[in-house]
Amino acid sequence: MNLPRVFAVILGLIAGTAALSVYLSRAAVGELLTTRAQFEQLRPGDRIVYVCRQCDAKRTVALASVAEALEYCREGATLSCPGCKDEMRVVLKQVPGAPDSAVEVHYFNKKGHECLTIAKAPPEP
After folding, report:
1. Calpha distance 122→46 (Å, rounded)
2. What is the pTM for the complete model shown?
């Protein structure tokens, strides 16, 4: 084998391993909650997990009510990272000029970086 072919194979293995790692980490967290409609479908007893993109800290929360679930998608609400203790603010975004589009939920820190992800936790075995 020549050197470019060996390099391409090694690069392919690295990319494949990275893709598998992302897939497995997302499967462990569950379905990402990115819209207000997804939060509205949550019910008492459902569990959510939020993950800080800065420090990879995770917190699992069992929801006690629908109102508690909606608090995670209320414009201006704040959440605290369980690891780095950074404060995240909820920002809702909708496509301009498209009133029927889904309202997206984003979480920004004080520096303006989006750094929190919330997902519905998979059922416990």
Report:
1. 9
2. 0.71
Tokens (6 digits) for 22: 């992302």
- H-type alpha helices, the chain: 3-29, 36-40, 66-71
At 21-58, the pLDDT tens digits run 655 555 556 788 999 999 999 999 999 998 888 888 88
* Strand 31-32 relative to strand 87-93, pairing: unpaired
- Per residue in 83-124, pLDDT tens? 888 899 999 998 777 777 788 999 999 888 888 889 998 877
Instruction: Copy the structure tokens of residue 62.
Output: 């069992």
Please name the helix (run of DSSP H) or strand (run of DSSP E) that holds residue 59, with its range, or none: strand 58-62
DSSP string computed for 69-112:
HHHTTSTT-EEE-TTT--EEEEEEE--TT-TTSPPEEEEE-TTS
Distance separating alpha carbons of residues 61 and 9, to the nearest angstrom: 43
